[in-house]
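Entry type: protein chain
Record version: 2
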Amino acid sequence: MNKYVEILRTKPQDDYSDFEYDSPVWETFTHAFVSIKAMSGRELATANEVHSTSTHKIIMRYQPGVTSNMKILAATKTYEIVAVVEDDSGRDMMILAKVIGDG
């Protein structure tokens, strides 16, 4: 796991605020070291049966609370989490994601 990333979640709106956001406001959920790999043709074919938009596989240590409603900011790319799968050992997790921004 060689990349240090920021995992973002949507910030809950203040119950006492009259202001409604046009788009979600993101806040840091956690930081983590991960491994990011583009999925191979065979992996894409298999993943597309369930998650048609997945293009990357991200492996990280198990982190409770990571969901498909979150984003991952890497150095030059932003990934939208499509699915989160815990491995059998409960030590690691695999995230299926798609690139939504380069920068």
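Comment: The chain has one domain: 3-12+22-102.
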